[in-house]
Design brief:
Elements lengths: L1 H10 L1 H18 L4 H22 L3 H22 L7 H32 L5 H28 L4 E3 L8 H10 L7 E3 L2 H36 L1
Antiparallel strand pairs: 1-2
Keywords: Membrane, Transmembrane, Transmembrane helix
InterPro entries: K_chnl_dom
Protein name: Potassium channel domain-containing protein
Length: 227
């Protein structure tokens, strides 16, 4: 019975997307950075696009464009992580920056697609609330990519404790900033990094207060009226 319930839960698109995002975040924060892990996480991230297409059901042309863009971006990541450009340090850094920006654009498109889907739903369900949570997680991942892009050109953009050096500190920093936790173990020093962190903290509070609170409120009121 329990396994049947689990199978039914994972068949729902938002549940699948939420599961994928939690896996990505856990790997990004816990495990050490290495090329294989980066490629694996990127592959999982791009596979989430299939769930977004399944949820949003965009036009055929939009779906094809997103898939092409995701394949191109993933190819860039693989080339970068396998060290093809290592003999050319300057070019390698530029290529890494381009990779992060391409990933950021990809995630931005996915977030916009999901927001449009949420806004067009006439009835708020538990699945839709999970969709709102998925967007929250995606925003945190997006900001972590932007932080890393800044760090590519300015290695001293963030003051990071040595314990975080082996992991991806930007995913962790993005989440504690989005939730306005701020433990102080990672600090933005670069002016652009400070500005981004400020915007993320504001967005995190406003998103929870406006979008998630509204979805939960509408869901609760619908359940009350149904009963």
């Amino acid at each position: 019975m329990k396994w049947h319930f689990l199978r039914l839960s994972l068949e729902r698109p938002y549940n699948q997307l939420l599961f994928i995002l939690v896996a990505i975040i856990s790997v990004g924060i816990i495990f050490k950075i290495n090329p294989i892990a980066t490629i694996a996480v990127s592959f999982i991230l791009f596979s989430s696009l299939l769930q977004v297409i399944k949820i949003a059901r965009p036009s055929l042309q939009t779906s094809k464009s997103l898939l092409r863009f995701s394949l191109l971006t993933f190819s860039i990541i693989v080339i970068n992580e396998l060290g093809v450009l290592q003999p050319f340090p300057g070019l390698s850094e530029i290529f890494r920056f381009v990779t992060l920006i391409a990933l950021s654009v990809f995630l931005s498109l996915v977030i916009i697609l999901l927001i449009k889907t949420l806004m067009h739903e006439s009835q708020v369900t538990a699945d839709l609330v999970k969709g709102g949570i998925c967007i929250y997680f995606l925003v945190a991942i997006l900001w972590s990519l932007l932080y890393e892009a800044i760090a590519v050109f300015d290695p001293l953009a963030f003051l990071i404790l040595p314990e975080h050096k082996d992991n991806n500190p930007y995913v962790y920093f993005s989440f504690i900033t989005l939730t306005s936790t701020g433990f102080g173990d990672i600090l933005p020093i670069n002016p652009v990094a400070k500005l981004l962190a400020s915007f993320e903290a504001m967005f995190g509070q406003l998103y929870l207060a406006i979008v998630i609170a509204r979805l939960v409120s509408l869901y609760s009121s619908q359940n009350s009226s149904d009963s």
